[in-house]
Amino acid sequence: MKEITVQEVQQSIENGNKLNLIDVREVAEIQEGHIPGIINIPLGLLEFRLHELNKNTPYIMICRSGGRSGQATEFLSYHGYDATNMVGGMLAWEDKSK
Fold it and tell me: Is 63 in the active site?
């Protein structure tokens, strides 16, 4: 499974890079704080929303701690998508205002 650190994601955003971030937390969790520009697809709905994703687009998967996003990364990779897990999740995100 491909992985990326929170610091690498933050640096890439600060450098102005356009990232395709998918947050697999539930809607209520997203409302507590998230990275601007994310796409919210709760993990339980991911298999039903594959049609919204492009196999030629790289995605970075996000959740609270990295567990659910790891599951999402494995699921997407198995189905031929370019997915990378953000290790540590939002618990490791330094901008606490999110």
Answer: yes
